[in-house]
Design a protein that fits this description.
Structural class: alpha/beta
Oligomer: single chain
Number of strands: 12
Radius of gyration: 21 Å
Largest sheet: 4 strands, parallel
CATH topology of the largest domain: Cobalt-precorrin-4 Transmethylase, domain 1
CATH architecture of the largest domain: 3-Layer(aba) Sandwich
Strand content: 15-25%
Order of helices and strands: EHEHEHEHEHEHEHEHEHEHEHEH
Strand order of the largest sheet: 1-12-10-11
CATH class of the largest domain: Alpha Beta
Number of helices: 12
CATH superfamily of the largest domain: 4-hydroxy-3-methylbut-2-enyl diphosphate reductase, catalytic domain
Distance between the termini: 7 Å
Bound molecules: FE3-S4 cluster
Length: 284
């Protein structure tokens, strides 16, 4: 089987950095806590749990700790959480992706100057929740064209628009256009990460050429879900899998398939991508 594997498949710079930071601490004898799963990948989280790393589900659980190391994942957290960790005397390993950290800085600075902050993204995503927590003024999160059309900006206030790093670039442009047409005075900062854009563009190009497309990633990974949507729009025969086992269940007949494309979200470990690639190349 001919296979086209996306060069941009798998861990991005920020996730690789976060993983390295956690694995560096594992085995040092300290009790390590992750504030939420380090990445949206069940296999990786299970492996870390086996090595004694505990996942904290909420800031309330953080308040119950008296010692240990708390790892902040690449999505970042609000300013309050840093304060909490410091006040509890815990050790902080900050694995916030530098690109996310940059958004925190923009939001903090712009809101300090009095700007109203608009975040284009998914309100329930932890990265967006973290970004909100750096603003000194009220924020709003906009995800759809309808929300953008219905939203009335506060009068006589500067506005600063930032984006969740993994948001779809074309959709971001569309939403910004809606705001600009309303005549608001807006400072637009495109904070979409290049890694996401490149992965999305490459995935679309590959999906256009192949008979079947495989997108690998955790079911809770927003960037993998977006990759899937993009590929599905180009290739109807697109499959979203977490592990190789899912592929056994997903595909029944492969007789008419000559070429398969593979891409993977930012939190997908290399060994899973390799496994899938090998299976498709040899056993399909
Ligand atoms: Fe960072 Fe971009 Fe990855 S923001 S976590 S390098 S997708």
């Amino acid at each position: 089987m001919e296979v086209i594997l996306a060069k941009s498949a798998g861990f991005c710079f920020g996730v690789r950095r976060a993983m390295d930071k956690v694995y560096e601490r594992v085995g040092t004898g300290e009790q390590i806590y992750m504030l939420g799963s380090i990445i949206h990948n069940e296999e990786v989280v299970k492996d870390l749990e086996k090595r004694g790393v505990k996942v904290l589900q909420s800031p309330e659980e953080l308040l119950l700790l008296h010692e240990g190391v708390v790892v902040i994942r690449s999505h970042g957290v609000s300013k309050d959480i840093y304060k909490m960790i410091e006040e509890k005397g815990l050790t902080c390993v900050d694995a916030t992706c530098p690109f996310v950290r940059k958004i925190h800085k923009i939001v903090e600075d712009e809101s300090e100057k009095g700007a109203h902050i608009v975040i284009i993204g998914n309100a329930n995503h932890p990265e967006v929740e973290g970004i909100k927590g750096w603003s000194k003024t009220p924020t709003v999160v906009i995800e759809s064209a309808e929300e953008a059309r219905n939203y009335e900006m506060p009068h006589n206030q500067m506005v600063c628009i930032v984006s969740q790093t993994t948001f779809n670039y074309n959709k971001f442009q569309e939403l910004v256009e809606i705001f600009l047409k309303k005549g608001y005075d807006i400072n637009v900062v495109n904070t979409i990460c290049n890694a996401t854009e490149e992965r999305q563009k490459e995935a679309a190009e590959i999906a256009r050429k192949v008979d079947m497309m495989i997108v690998i990633g955790g079911t809770h990974s927003s960037n993998t879900q977006k990759l899937y949507e993009i590929c599905k729009a180009e290739c109807a025969n697109t499959h979203y899998i977490q592990t190789l086992e899912d592929l056994y269940l997903e595909t029944e007949t492969t007789k008419s398939i000559r070429c398969v494309g593979i891409t993977a979200g930012a939190s997908t470990p290399n060994n899973i991508i390799e496994e899938v690639q090998k299976y498709v190349r040899i056993d399909f």
